[in-house]
Amino acid sequence: MGKIKYQTKNVIRPYIGRNIVKERKKRSMSQSDLLAKLNLLGCDVDRYAVSSIENNHSCNINLLADIREALNCSWDDLLDNK
Fold first, then answer.
1. What is the reported pLDDT for 81?
2. Per-residue CA distances from 82 to 22, 29, 69, 75 (Å)
């Protein structure tokens, strides 16, 4: 298993958006690039949804799973609170 221990959404949620941006930029991807990959994976999402989750306004677990797959990163990368 990963290094992330169970934490409430109020502890992890503020870090998810920051971690998505970090992982996206690590791969030199724009939000549009991420959106295109998500659409290729069959995720019917718009740029507003990607922006919203990066700004911690929403955190749909299904979209988060698709983002993790599109970025090819681990759950630990997305949920790390450090």
1. 80
2. 12, 22, 22, 14
